[in-house]
Structures are given as C-alpha cells and as structure tokens.
Amino acid sequence: MPVILGPVSTSRMREPDYDLGGREAADRAWRDLWLTVVVNFLGLPALALPTGLGSDGMPTGVQLIGPMFGEEVLLDAGRAVEAGVPSLPPVPSPS
Questions:
Q1: In sequence order, what are the beta bridge partners of 67?
Q2: What is the three-state SS of 33-80?
Q3: Cα torsion at 29, 35, 39, 45 (round to 10°)?
Q4: Average pLDDT over the chain, rounded to whole?
Q5: 56 has pLDDT over 90
Q6: CA–CA gap between residue 48 and residue 13 (Å, rounded)
Q7: Chain Cα centroid distance, residue 60
Q8: Could you give the C-alpha distances from 52 to 17, 22, 95, in angstroms and in order?
Q9: Dihedral of the CA atoms 37, 41, 43, 47 (nearest 10)?
Q10: Banded model confidence at residue 53, pLDDT cuts 50, 70, 90
Q11: Half-sphere exposure of 9 toward its Cβ, with a 13 Å CA cutoff?
Q12: Radius of gyration (C-alpha) of the chain in whole angstroms
C-alpha cells in the first residue's frame, strides 16, 4: 500500500500562539496547514512526525498519509521514519 510523505506545514513553524494574533495570523496559519486540513476532511489516516530542529531552533517535521483503513501500514512507515531521525533535545521548562 502506498504512503504519501508530505509537509506538516508549508512554512516554517512560528512562535507558540502565533495564530491568536488576529484574523490575518489565523488565516495564514490555516493556509500553512492546508495539507493537514485536507487529509482530516478526507478521513485518511495520517501521522505528523518530528524530524529535528531548524537553524532557528523551531521544530521541523513531516506528515505521512496512508490509504483508507491503512493504519497498520502507516504506523510501520512512521516507525521507519522515526528510526532514521536523531532524538530531539528535551523541551526546556518555561521560566
């Protein structure tokens, strides 16, 4: 069964709560996540997996999209991706 590898977001991650900065910020966040939104509307199984940190310290990631009722294949693909990615550093505690 095929699995699609795609981005979680079409732009770099922004600071937490970015989308709460008004209508324009919320609209941009929605557009950045279009592939995630479409997959949810279609009811397809999907996983978002971290792949590291960018040079700006913000997380990077990929989305795996499986076929309808293909959760087992999707989870196997997710394990394969995770096995090839170094562990992320712990999240610092808020000050």
A1: none
A2: CHHHHHHHHHCCCEEEEEEEECCCCCEEEEEEECCCCCHHHHHHHHHH
A3: -100
A4: 85
A5: no
A6: 14
A7: 8
A8: 21, 29, 23
A9: 0
A10: confident
A11: 14
A12: 15
From 72, 73, 80, select the one nearest 51 (Cα to Cα): 80
What residue type is assigned to position 49 of the chain?
L
If we measure between CA atoms, which residue out of 37, 40, 46, 44 comes closest to residue 9? 37
The predicted structure's pLDDT at residue 5: 93
Angstrom distance (rounded) from CA 75 to CA 13: 24
Q: How big is the chain, counted in residues?
A: 95
Q: How many CA atoms lie within 13 A of 32 on its CB side?
A: 14
Amino acid at 31: R
Q: Distance between CA 36 and CA 45 in Å, rounded?
A: 11
